[in-house]
Write a structure and sequence with these properties.
By secondary structure, the chain is mainly β. The chain is 0% helix and 46% strand. It contains no helices and 11 strands. The strands form 2 sheets. Strands 2, 4, 5, 6, 9, 10 and 11 form a 7-stranded mixed beta sheet that branches. A hairpin with a 6-residue loop joins strand 5 and strand 6.
Length: 128
């Protein structure tokens, strides 16, 4: 069982930045692909960004490319989402997700159903 705890959410003005963190309890964190998703009120949860276990392979949704960056520090069992040039439409609850068994493949995943574990979410609000 892997526990994920997000932090770093809050209120930011449009054009500003936030960095989200997700701490994982996994024993072999390197073997977990990680992802960030978000859910705005009245909308379905959507993919934001993903990173492979080594951190070498990443992928971001078109809506955040060039603004958001996913990274990880395996020595600290933590994945990050750096959010720059934020827009009001980025307002959502942001969730961290993990999928195990990826040590050899070192790939990332973009679908909700590909992930086994989820954090409780952290609220991000962007004022215009």
């Amino acid at each position: 069982q892997v526990q994920l705890v997000e932090s770093g959410g809050g209120l930011v003005q449009a054009g500003g930045s936030l960095r989200l963190s997700c701490a994982a309890s996994a024993r072999t964190f390197r073997g977990y692909a990680m992802g960030w998703f978000r859910q705005a009120p009245g909308k379905e949860r959507e993919f934001v960004a993903a990173v492979s276990g080594s951190g070498r392979n990443t992928y971001s949704a078109e809506s955040v490319k060039g603004r958001f960056t996913i990274s990880r520090e395996n020595a600290e069992n933590t994945v990050y989402l750096q959010m720059n040039s934020m827009k009001p439409e980025d307002k959502a609850v942001y969730y961290c997700a993990a999928r195990g068994g990826t040590y050899l493949s070192d790939t990332y995943y973009v679908n909700l159903n590909d992930y086994n574990y989820w954090g409780q979410g952290t609220q991000v609000t962007v004022s215009s």
